[in-house]
Design brief:
This is Inositol 1,4,5-trisphosphate receptor-interacting protein. Its main location: membrane. It is a single-pass type I membrane protein. It is found in: Cell membrane; Nucleus outer membrane. The chain has 17 helices and ten strands. By secondary structure, the protein is of the alpha+beta class. A hairpin with a 4-residue loop joins strand 7 and strand 8. Helix 11 packs antiparallel against helix 12. The protein is elongated. The C terminus is likely disordered.
Length: about 550
Amino acid sequence: MPVGIFRVCLVVITAIINHPLLFPKENGTVPENTEEIIQKMKEREESLRLEQLRLEQEIADQEAAQKALEKAAEVVEESKEEKVRWDMWTALSMVIFLLIELWRQDFQEGIWQDTGGEEDDMAVLGKAFKGVAFPEKAVLASFYEKRILGTTGDMARMREMVEGFADDLLEALRSVCNRDADMEVEDCMGVGSMYENWRVRKPFVCDLIVPFAPPEPYCFRSQTWCSGDSSSPNEQGYGTIKVCRADEDVTGCICDKTKLGEDMLCLLHSPANTTRPNSEMEDLLCFKNTQYLDANQVMKWFQIAVTKAWNRISHKYEFDLSFSLLDSPGALKIKFRSGKSVAFNLTPVVQYENSDVYFISHFPRSSLPADLPSSTHWFLTFAVYERRFIQLVSKMLPANACHVSCLQILSFLHGKQCSLTGPSGLTNYHLKTVMLHLLQARPSQDWAPEKLEARLQDMLKFLEKCLHEKKLYHFFIGNGKVPAELGFPIIFQNAEPLNLFRPFVLRRDVYRKTVDTFHEMLRNMSALINEYTVHIPLAHTNGIHKESL
């Protein structure tokens, strides 16, 4: 109860003290405080308004900058899309251009390989023939009879003498060699212009190839550029020769082709059978630490063997024998006491499988590319098949056909021109390849002897076309029309054509020199022929023309 009375009294006293009528002087300042508050509120409102304007301006600036960035991004994106579209069109155009170029080359190669003897193929004279005067038939016939035909008998006598001596030399070589350790040498074979009866330039040089094989129980296993994986252009026409044991099956096991790990062992070939001392392989003329036949080792071996063989039989002959070229192991020269000499080449080769294609260690007197991929790469020669093809075709041609005559005249003119202006990139092998292509392209009746002038012009036109295009394909490689009677290996017929003029693409200086020499030969052709032709009366010449008409 007392607590309740106390609370009531406390409330009453508080109300009296806070009554507005009490202390009037102190409450008189209330209006003045209100105005100050209002003034401060206005100032605050103004500052807030200014701050709002500032923030709105900043927001507007930020929005403008954002829009500018977005617009710039759109421009960049559009430029990228435009560039991508342009790059796509450029790439597409390049692809189309390359396809057209590849089709054009394939089309030209198809025409090249499918030459059918049509007159249109040889009807167009190039720029090199403008103003060129071909000798008359009578002059050409007299030149051939006086300058070239008389050398046939000399070639026959020289072939007989060289072959007899070579057989005796090889027999002596076999006797000085160790049959259990040295290479086994077979009988030699004659190839090239001397044995195809078109050699005209002196001195006459016989080319003989000598196949050889390893001693038992070893054998040669060869691989060409067209029988394995894809090879580089520099390896076209080459192959490798591996020396293996006869009972070793290198094709049926992958241990020879794949590097096995240290913890892996081939169950077919034990280390005792597959691993041979390096000295043993070097005795087999292999490249160091390999099983591949080394051409340089073969050259050294053959040179030493020939020297030993000559020392054994030299007492039987009244002449001296020496090596005429240091870089050619079989380039030999016979020197008689009278001062005369006879040169011939005895070159070691390896037979490719059971064919008459051979791997040759080097080409004597050749301008073929000497930059071999390595000394374990051997060039393939088709000289035996070339000789057989000429013999086979000659049987179907008219009597006294002019194909050999054309080649002899062209070889003579080119040789004479080179003696005047220096050597060129053209070789006699290129000229023979031209003749082989034309022999296959033209019917047999076109090679009658009275058509010598026309066929000589065909060979010159064909050669000019090849020089212009920098393309002269090997006659056998890639040629599906080789007569079946030759028994030519099908693997080379199915291979890509081999361009013999590829060096002209790589070396412009050699190409320019070759073309200039060819043009100069055409301009000097009549003068060169007239120089070696007996004088023919004009009346006799006119009579010949009347008979030909």
